[in-house]
Amino acid sequence: MAGAVVQSGAVIGENAIVNTRSSVDHHTRIGRSVHIAPGAVVCGNVEIGAAAFIGAGATIVQGICIGQAATVGGGTVVIRNVPDGVTVMGNPAKESTS
């Protein structure tokens, strides 16, 4: 999408969306059918599992793993790994109970 940046060594899976103004840094691995929403920042050496959703303006710091079908809410700052199927929100990211 317009203004998206994908750095060297990044791998983007089939049917994934790297949306407007989002940034995917070096050596990141994005699984199949992942959606990176507008303005999200994915730092280097991050792994995002299949069918995960990364919300608008979210930041994922380097070396983090986001599980399959996990959801990262808009504006969230992820500083710890997120398990499969879990939704996190806030700064720093915390599991959502709703």
Topology summary:
Blueprint: E1 5-6, E2 11-12, E3 17-18, E4 23-24, E5 29-30, E6 35-36, E7 41-42, E8 47-48, E9 53-54, E10 59-60, E11 65-66, E12 71-72, E13 77-78, E14 87-89, E15 94-95
Parallel strand pairs: 1-4, 2-5, 3-6, 4-7, 5-8, 6-9, 7-10, 8-11, 9-12, 10-13, 12-14
Antiparallel strand pairs: 14-15
CATH class: Mainly Beta
Structural domain tally: 1
- Fourth-level CATH superfamily: Hexapeptide repeat proteins
Between the first and last Cα atoms, what is the distance in angstroms? 31 Å
Task: Output the CATH topology.
Answer: UDP N-Acetylglucosamine Acyltransferase, domain 1
Helix content percent band:
under 10%
Structural class: mainly beta
Radius of gyration over alpha carbons? Answer: 12 Å
> What can be said about the biggest beta sheet?
6 strands, mixed
Overall 3D form:
globular
Q: Overall mean pLDDT score?
A: 97
In terms of DSSP E residues, the strand content is: 25-35%
Side by side, the strands of the main sheet go 3-6-9-12-14-15
Helix count? 0
Please report the total strand number as a whole number: 15
The helix/strand series, from N terminus to C terminus, equals EEEEEEEEEEEEEEE
Low confidence ranges: none
Corresponding CATH architecture: 3 Solenoid
Describe the structure.
- This protein is mainly β.
- The protein has a single domain (1-82), classed as UDP N-Acetylglucosamine Acyltransferase, domain 1 (3 Solenoid).
- It has no helices and 15 strands.
- It has strands at residues 5-6, 11-12, 17-18, 23-24, 29-30, 35-36, 41-42, 47-48, 53-54, 59-60, 65-66, 71-72, 77-78, 87-89, 94-95.
- The strands form three sheets. The protein has a six-stranded mixed β-sheet, with no helix packed on it.
- Strand 14 (87-89) and strand 15 (94-95) form a beta hairpin.
- It starts with a strand and ends with a strand.
- The mean pLDDT is 97.
